[in-house]
């Protein structure tokens, strides 16, 4: 029998500190209205000192495990651009703190596409019989990478984590993931980047400028690529699944920017009202954005069992990816 990865639990975790636009605007020669009109963001959450990416990942993982009604899995994957340390990976730390010492655990690095790459990787583990259950977490403390004086990036990103539990099941049952589409184009590596800190800079013999330690993004080019790649990838998985755009009940794209989400929906011919969006409340949380949006929509009762879901993401690398599923009947008492 073909083994599919079936979504059976969701969870999320946000740090307690909400940062409204007004708090950032004063130091950026900007305004609340400008930030909201350009990005669709009203606030985001920043982790406090003493908090690490693993702390948020553990919180989201605990809630996803509770939602699934299980306490252990066979593998833990953490998609992140902001690991606790360059070495070791964050996932083994998270697995141990969740009480799963000895469990396979590793990080997935594909920036904002990381969660979709993580889903595909988990689906492969399940299909190959390596694992029966996998916990996939997207977790970020992107505030640690931001230049507080750069209004093109400082107002966009936030911190948070989201997670799902996948189990082995039948490809035809609700919650089964797939097909998938994944892609990359490394020729665009400099469009979304942190220039300093890696082997290329360290072995160059040149000390980095202060600004090169921060996240940088070429906004106009990223906007164009994000719409092009997400819409194209989404079309590919819709065709593979035998779905039409009008069959999609909910489009859950990476929460990059509200205008990007709207453009992707328009390009696909999906009404904007079918987009699941929480960017106004949490900002762009990179690899955490899709699972955070899923958990929030589930908690608020927006997702109905049997609803056809299209997930699509775009991130640095450049990377992109998409998948589909029919939303399962999750037990709300465990949320």
Summarize the entry for a quick read.
This protein has 335 residues and is of the alpha/beta class.
Please explain how this structure is put together.
The chain has 11 helices and 13 strands. Strands 1-7-6-4-5 form a 5-stranded mixed beta sheet, sandwiched between helices. It has a 4-stranded mixed beta sheet with strand order 8-13-12-11, with helices on both faces. Strands 2-3 form a two-stranded antiparallel sheet. It has helices at residues 21-25, 32-39, 53-68, 90-97, 114-127, 151-154, 199-202, 219-241, 258-268, 279-282, 289-299; strands at 4-13, 18-20, 43-45, 75-79, 104-108, 133-141, 159-169, 180-184, 192-193, 216-217, 250-253, 308-315, 319-326. Helix 4 (90-97) links the parallel strand 4 and strand 5. The chain has 2 domains: 4-169, Thiolase/Chalcone synthase (Peroxisomal Thiolase, Chain A, domain 1); 180-334, Peroxisomal Thiolase, Chain A, domain 1 (3-Layer(aba) Sandwich), CATH 3.40.47.10. Helix 3 crosses helix 4 (90-97) and helix 8 packs parallel to helix 9. It is globular and about 55 Å long. The model has no long low-confidence stretch (mean pLDDT 96). The longest helix has 23 residues, at 219-241. 52% of the residues are buried. The protein has 335 residues and is an alpha/beta fold. Belongs to the thiolase-like superfamily. FabH family. Residues 255-259 are annotated as: ACP-binding. One of its GO terms (molecular function) is beta-ketoacyl-acyl-carrier-protein synthase III activity.
């Amino acid at each position: 029998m073909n083994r599919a990865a079936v979504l059976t639990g969701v969870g999320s975790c946000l740090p307690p500190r909400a940062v409204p636009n007004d708090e950032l605007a004063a130091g950026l020669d900007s305004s609340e209205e400008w930030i909201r009109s350009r990005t669709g963001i009203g606030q985001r959450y920043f982790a406090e000192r003493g908090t690490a990416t693993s702390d948020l990942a553990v919180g989201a993982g605990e809630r996803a495990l509770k939602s699934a009604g299980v306490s252990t899995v066979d593998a833990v994957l953490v998609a992140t651009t902001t690991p606790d340390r360059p070495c070791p990976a964050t996932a083994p730390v998270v697995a141990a703190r969740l009480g799963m010492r000895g469990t396979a655990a590793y990080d997935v690095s594909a920036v904002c596409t990381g969660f979709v790459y993580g889903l595909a990787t988990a689906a492969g583990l399940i299909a190959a019989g390596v694992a029966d259950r996998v916990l996939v977490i997207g977790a970020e403390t992107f505030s640690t990478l931001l230049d507080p004086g750069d209004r093109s990036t400082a107002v966009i990103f936030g911190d948070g984590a989201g997670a799902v539990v996948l189990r082995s099941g039948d490809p035809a049952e609700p919650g089964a993931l797939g097909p998938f589409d994944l892609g990359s184009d490394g020729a665009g590596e400099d469009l979304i980047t942190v220039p300093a800190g890696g082997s290329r800079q360290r072995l160059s013999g040149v000390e980095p400028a202060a600004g090169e330690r921060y996240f940088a993004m070429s906004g106009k080019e990223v906007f164009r690529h994000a719409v092009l790649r997400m819409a194209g990838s989404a079309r590919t998985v819709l065709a593979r699944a035998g779905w039409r755009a009008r069959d999609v009940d909910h489009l859950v794209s990476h929460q990059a920017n509200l205008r990007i989400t709207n453009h992707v929906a328009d390009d696909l011919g999906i009404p904007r009202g079918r987009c699941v969006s929480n960017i106004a409340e949490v900002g762009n949380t990179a690899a955490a954005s899709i699972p955070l949006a899923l958990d929030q929509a589930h908690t608020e009762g927006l997702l109905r069992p049997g609803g056809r879901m299209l997930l699509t993401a775009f991130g640095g690398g450049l990377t992109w990816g998409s998948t589909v599923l029919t939303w399962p009947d999750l037990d709300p008492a465990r949320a």
